[in-house]
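Sample entry (269 residues):
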Amino acid sequence: MHLYFAGYTAYAKEAKQAGLDHLLESYLTFKNKKGKGEFINWHQTKGLLGEHIFLDSGAFSAWTRGIKIDIDKYAEFIKQHEKYLTVYGNLDVIGNAQGTEKNQRYLESKGLHPIATFHIGSDYKKLEQMVKEYDYIALGGLVGVPKARRIKHLDKCFRIIKTKCKVHGFGVGDFDIMLRYPFYSVDNTNWILGGRIGVVYRFDKKNLKLQSTSSSDVRILDRIKSANLGNFLGKGNSHKNRTLENAMIFKEVESFVTRVWESRGVRWD
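Predicted structure, serialized as tokens:
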């Protein structure tokens, strides 16, 4: 399983230090930057241009903020940077499955290949069609949905998908969800959010638990033997230290989940 670390532009130094090689960022971050080379120049400067980059359209964030995304400008941006992108998303129309599919077909008509996304609440017959048409799809609309509903939905999805195609999970950060379903890739911002609110993660492989622990809790030293606890407390750069630590923890989770699915006979190229 590949874990795309979302929101990395806010912590580019930490992303580089942690050796993160799968990164997800929103088109909104760069769409208003001056100069066609800004995306390339920024990533070159940070030493991140050669990593696997997933470009999300930012449709949901734009919708919540009342920002309109021009699909032709989005398509132009993708074409300008396609050689540096491993994956890029469709421009979803929030709450409108037909509008979302229309945009998918429009971008495809431009010679592009955005990952098609099936959203919670949509007709599962559409998912059956997508599995037949694409070798890599995404499941979206999961963030903020009660866990019981997410599991019920994902159970239905993977009964249809099985391992017929690769699947990306937008906003999937629950360790038990990663172990329950054979995602090819997921993304989340947990590594950033934890650091910002004073949390350092602990990964208990033996008991299969990913725990968020207050940075003032001495139990984090079980993992960070040589660290000074003060580096994770207070103001200044402590949030960056927490974020760096959390990035490395989630890298461990990524490797662990990959090995678990390989032991179950699921191995993606």
